[in-house]
Each structure stands twice: as structure tokens, then as C-alpha cells.
Amino acid sequence: MDMVKLSEDAKAVLLLCGFFGNAKNGTDVPLSLSDYNRVAAWLSAHEYRPRNLVTGTALAALKSERPPDIDPTRCERLLARGAAMAFALERWMNKGIWVICRSDGDYPRRLRDHLRTQAPPVLYGIGEQRLLDNGGLAVVGSRNIEQNGSDFASEVARHAAKQGLSVVSGGARGVDQIAMNAALEAGGTVVGVLADSLLRTSLNQEAREPIRSQRLTLISACHPEAGWNVGNAMGRNKHIYALSDYAIVVSSDYRKGGTWEGALEELQRGIHTPVFVRAYKDAPKGNEELIKRGALPFPDQPWERPFVELLADAARNARVNTPADMANLFTGIKQEAVSIPSDSAELVKKSDRALSGKPAGETSAHSVFEAVLPILCSALSQPHTIADLAAALDIQQTQLNRWVEEATRRGLVRRLAKPTRYVAMPSEKSCLLFRQGDVDE
Q1: Which of 110, 298, 304, 409 is 20 to 30 A from 86 via CA?
Q2: How many helices, marked H, and strands, marked E, lie in the chain?
């Protein structure tokens, strides 16, 4: 990979968000995620692409309009760092580091679908990119782990590896490294989501062989030579969950630490990766408290069936049952307008309150979504905006966004542009089938 293989959009995003050396002053500090999201929203609203900031008229329009939450001068200075970017890319790519941006079509779909605007604008990595779309089992936990927890992490990782299930973890000392090493020793594949030192870690002797054999991929949302800081360490937790089908918390402190905060963040997400915890007697208090907040006990040994079956059954059995005739309760929605029967709207409002309640886990996010899905699809028999639908249902627009995004990800609802609206797919992709397929937006 070399610089010319980066798309023009990717080059623009990297110029805005990439770190290539010490900033001379505050205006040279690369855009944060929230900063970039504001720029991306402005570009989208004006039907520009990131490359138009460099090769088109977008920068001039931005400077002319001067929106209150974007600094055009700062953007202009960042976009002028072409030489610094070229030198940095050459240095990294000579060591095998690749760069991919959120504007790219081959950006990891799991990150894009699960995190949406919280997906990192720039992703650095080394190793086989296809592993990022394979899913797998996230194994996370404290840095300081007792012997029983260490043995459990190793055993879970080995079982996953032998079953062809990738292990996803954070590369930190303790549970992360124990699980990753055990999976590699068992011949499995591993994705390591690092908070710092991607370049240095990739050069370790222990990492070189599995990287060359396409069994280990290391990624980071931080530039390859970034040092450690607590913000980056906390921020990468959501990337670990997004890249996984299931997650197991081996050991967590109570109300402190990255493992605790990362698990809570995921459990509070509208549609989240199923989070399991080690629930044995010697497990720390944080594990027990996570169960109270919606996590599930990891199946007891002996594990006589594949993890995928065990975890799917456990997650399914934990859901609140949905009445079989739910879909038949909500009919007669008008085609020419968003007109929701009062009983349907009330059910959605109750579901919204249940999903937002504390402690988390008393109501399954998945079961609530499936309960309201027929209502959404009926209402979207004709294209409508999120704002119109939220007003008709009388619920928070942020929650409705999560549901519509999940229905879109499953291929049950389609996103239309100019203006942004949503419409249910034809009957062959009926919402009542709860299909899990994906469609391109």
C-alpha cells in the first residue's frame, strides 16, 4: 500500500484528523471525533465529499459561511499538511502499517454499523484487514487478574480458537494479553484493538509471525506512534465490542476502570453486542454488578457445544418474550401520512421507557426492538423522515434513530437521500420476518 492508493476522500480525512508530529500551535491540533463529525455533517448537508475541501469549492464555501461550530481557518491549516502526511505515511507503510478512513467503501462494516458517527474517522492497522469483518468473541478484563481468572481467560480463548471463532481484545496487560496469546497458541485468529504504540507492538518478535501468517491483525484509532493515555484506553472499548459477535468480561472492578466503563457503555447502547461475564464464586464484585445491569452469566463448564450455539441460546433465553400476535395488533396505518394508532404509539412509548430504565437489563434491548419493529415498518410503508415519525409516535428522536438504524442494517428498511427519509423494504423483506441481512445505504 502507498499514498497514491489512498482515495482523495481518505487523504482529506487523514489531513484533517491525522497526527504527523508535534503541533506548532492550537490551530494545528487535528480534529477530534466530534470536530470531524461536525465537518462531515456540514459537507453532507451541502452535498460535498471530503475531497472537495482540497480539490473543489467546499473550503471556500466553508470559509464564506463560517458555521459557528467549525473553524474554517483551522481546517485550512490542517489541509495544508500534505508534505508532513506524505513523510508520515512513507514511514508507517514501510513498516507494514495501513490506513483506512471512514469515507472508504472498505472501512470495517461492523464499526460503521454498530457505532455510526462514533466510528473513528481514521483507522490504522497491520495485518489482514478481512479479519475485521469476521466477528468473534471479545475477551476483556482487568490488568490485575487472579489465577482462576487467568486460567478462565486462557481456556475460553483456546476453545474459541479451536472452533474457528476469532478472539477480539485490547492488547493490554492482564486478561487481554492472556486471551490473545492463548488463542494464537491454539492456532486461532486474533484482532487486537490497541490504545497506543501500534507501530512498536507490531514490531515485537511475538507479533511478527502471526501477522505474516494472517492470524493476527492489530488496529488502532490512534496514530501508530501514539503514547498511552486514559482517554484513548477508554475510547477503544467500544471498538472491541463493535467488532465482536459476543463479549465475555472475565474480571471487572466495581465502578472503576476501563473494563467496567466499557461494559456499561455497551450495555446502555440501544442495540448492543451481548455481554457475558464470568459468574463463578471467586469472580470480583464488578462481575456480579454487571449482571444486575444487563450482562449475562457466561455458560457453565463443561462446554459441550460450540460457543456460538451456547451464547446464542443464552442471549435468546434472556430476552423478554414477545407476543406471537404482536404484528397483528398494528394495522390500518394510512399510506399518505404518518398516522399511528393510539395503542401502537403508546406501546412504543412504554418500550422506550423500559429500554431507558435503570438498572439496565430488566428489559432486553433486542426484545424491545423486535416488539416495535412491526410498528415502524407499517409506519414506513411510505417514506418519512425521522422527525415526522418521532412526532407521530411521541418518543425521543434519539431512540427512534437507533431502531431505524438497526432495521436499516438488517435490510428491512431502506435509507433514501435528498432529503434523508426511510421506507420499509418490499414484502419479500418484510419486517415480520426479522431477517438479519444487510443492504447498502
Answers
A1: 110
A2: 20, 11
Q: Report the phi/psi class of residue 411: left, alpha or beta, with left for phi > 0 and alpha for psi in -120 to 50.
A: left
Mention every residue, 6+ apart, whose C-beta is less than 8 A from residue 324.
Answer: none
Q: Specify the pLDDT at position 44.
A: 93
Distances (CA, A) of 204 to 81, 152, 191, 198, 342: 31, 26, 16, 10, 62
Residues in the chain: 441
Question: What count of other Cβ atoms lies within 10 Å of the Cβ of residue 422?
Answer: 21
Give yes or no for a contact between 298 and 179, defined as CB atoms under 8 angstroms apart: no
Could you write out the three-class secondary structure of 386-401? HHHHHHHHCCCHHHHH
Distances (CA, A) of 81 to 28, 30, 233, 338, 423: 9, 11, 27, 49, 42
**Amino acid identity, residue 292?**
K
Helix (H/G/I), strand (E/B), else coil: 123: strand
Going by C-alpha positions, the residue among 205, 145, 203, 197 that lies closest to residue 176 is 145
Q: Using CA atoms, how far apart are residues 352 and 402, in angstroms rounded to an integer?
A: 11
What is the pLDDT at residue 70? Answer: 96
d(CA 79, CA 11): 9
277 CB burial (10 A radius; 0-12, 13-18, 19+): buried
DSSP state of 333: -
Locate 260 and state its grid cell.
467496567
Residues 6+ positions from 317 with CB-CB distance below 8 Å? none
- Answer yes or no: are the C-beta atoms of 14 and 124 closer than 8 Å: no
Residues of the chain with pLDDT under 70: 1-4, 22-27, 319-368, 371, 393-396, 398, 426-441
* pLDDT at 10 (0 to 100): 97
pLDDT tens for 339-354 read 444 444 454 544 444 4
Q: Which long-range contacts (CB under 8 A, 24 or more apart) does 359-364 make?
A: 359/292, 359/293, 359/294, 360/267, 360/268, 360/293, 360/294, 361/267, 361/291, 361/292, 361/293, 361/294, 361/295, 362/294, 363/320, 364/318, 364/319, 364/320
Check residue 22 and give its pLDDT.
65
Rounded to 10 deg, the angle between the 285-292 and 258-267 helix axes is 10
Other C-beta atoms lying within 10 Å of the C-beta of residue 285: 11
Residue 94, phi-psi category: left (phi > 0), alpha (psi -120 to 50), beta (remainder): alpha
Q: CB–CB of 37/117 below 8 Å?
A: yes
Angle at 378 between CA 111 and CA 315, to 5 degrees: 45
Q: What is the pTM of this model?
A: 0.74
